[in-house]
Amino acid sequence: MQQTQQTTASVQNSFWAGFHDGVPIGLGYLSVSVTFGMMAVTGGLPVWAAVAISMTNVTSAGQFAGLSLIFGGGTLFETALTQLVINLRYALMSLSLSQKLERRVGLIDRMLFSFMMTDEVFAVASGQKGEVGKRYLFGVMIAPYCGWALGTLCGAVASGFLPPSVRSALSIAIYGMFIAIVVPVAKQSRAVLGVVALAVALSCAMHWLPVLNTVSSGFSIILCTVLAAGLGALAAPVPDEPSGPDGEVA
Amino acid sequence: MNAKTIWLYIVVMAGVTYLIRMLPLALLRKKLRSRFIKSFLFYVPYAVLAVMTVPAIFESTGSVFSAAVGFAAAVLLAYRGAALLPVALAACGVVFCTEWMMRLF
Q1: For the residues of A39-64, what is the DSSP string, one character each?
Q2: Is B51's CB within 8 Å of A236's CB?
Q3: Which residues, given as ranges, of chain B have pLDDT below 70?
Q4: Are A218 and A81 in contact (CB under 8 A)?
Q5: Region A205-223: what's the mean pLDDT?
Q6: Which of A204, A200, A201 is nearest to A213 (CA)?
Q7: Which residue of B5, B12, B20 is the best one to mutate when testing the A interface, meaning the one whose CB has the most A CBs within 10 A?
């Protein structure tokens, strides 16, 4: 990742190396997707719908937000906008990966593995030295995809057998995960802490203040996020990382 | 909710998510120049996760009180550097115990 030379020497393109790197991601996804399956069915979706969402979306935050929109009766337009805002980060990852991909990887292949471009797959791919090839990428994606789909199925089927007290406790799990993602970064970076504090304040205002609380939850998420991240970007622009996965601009 | 409505939601969610991932990888080859957009995209995940967590977390469990205790436990553990799964499970455990104790009184 530190190397920015455009030598053709190192290309990681082994399917099995990729598969090996994907297994821990797949195991990690199991627990999250079990929670998703449970929440979907607990909230009133049939088992097939929970599994279909996981097999077509493959994104945790977007899927959980999608659930709250479905249960809250959000419109399709709100749903689309929410997915756009929540998943906007993938655009940056895809952009970054496009610089790291072997040049000869064709359009069809690019379109295929865009489908599975999760945070973790991106992290593993950009951690490779030099360029990555398509066989490596497809290898990485197999275990996470299976873990995501199977976990959702297990969670969806199991939720019917759980007593209400356990379901109540489990429904905080996803928020616990969000906290576990945000807090360590906010602890390190005052800018992120500021953005998070602003986001929380805006979100509470939208929830409790009169008039503002009539705005649907979908638009509220978008509005608060764009405001908090936008003000953060204005007040504390992120320095250009010289050792980023993209290398230098030619 | 009927199956057709559910499929509509699924198609919209999957379609938008896929296009976001696919378009930059398939079409753009240049690096992003705008420092503002790069910074904005850097902050988006944290902002959106914070917005989705607060205040929704306080209405996620059987009572506001148990949720607040779970929230505090999760923040404390995450601050101490615990990983995703332990934080999530600990929050669940704390909520379960809190609600169990609340039923005793």
Answers
A1: HHHHTT--HHHHHHHHHHH--HHHHH
A2: no
A3: 28-32
A4: yes
A5: 84
A6: A204
A7: B20
Whether the complex's predicted ipTM is more than 0.90 is answered with no
Nearest CA to B85 out of A152, A163, A35, A145 is that of: A35
Structural domain spans, chain B: 1-30, 33-104
Q: Measure the CA–CA gap between A57 and A37, rounded to whole angstroms.
A: 13
Q: What letter represents residue B79's amino acid? A: Y
Residues of B in contact with A120 (CB under 8 A): none
Report the residue from A173, A177, A200 with minimal CB separation from B50.
Answer: A200
In which band, very low, low, confident or very high, does the pLDDT at A99 lie, cut at 50, 70 and 90? confident
Taking only the tens place, the pLDDT of each residue in B10-36 is 999 999 999 999 998 888 666 667 889
User: Rounded CA gap, A59 and A73, in Å?
Assistant: 21
* Per-window interface: A 144-183 vs B, CB < 8 A: 164-166, 168-183
Contacts of A52 in chain B (CB under 8 A): 7, 10
Residue A34 vs residues A56, A94, A105, A120, A131: alpha-carbon distances, Å? 16, 27, 34, 18, 34
CA distance, residue B100 to nearest chain A CA (Å): 8
Rounded CA-CA distance A218/A77 in Å is 9
Q: pLDDT tens, A32-63?
A: 788 899 889 988 899 999 999 999 999 988 89
Closest CB to B32: pick one of A95, A166, A178: A95
User: What does the block give as tokens for A77?
Assistant: 């337009």
